[in-house]
Amino acid sequence: MSLLSSLLDHMPPTIANTSTENTRRPAPRTSLALITHAERRPQFVTEPHASAATATPEWRRARDAYLNHIMACRSCYAPTNRYCGAGADLRADYDRTPMEIQP
To answer: How confident is the model at residue 63 (pLDDT cuts 50, 70, 90)?
Structure first.
């Protein structure tokens, strides 16, 4: 015999649920049922949104000209709206150009 079996020899065996006091089964739990379907609003916006991929070619040209200029010009600093003469003209053109086709 093993050492473990000799240690457990003096303990009585445990038998599950031997008491007769609680032999009644618990009452069944009520369950919820969906009677009508709830109408939900769409979680995401399904209409098209404006982005550079859907923008007009004129807007993309104005954006590219403006960005190419301010990246190379040492006088222009966009975070503080400081532009040289050419940069100010390009920024104004970029702001005036519509991103979407107007109906």
So the answer is: very high
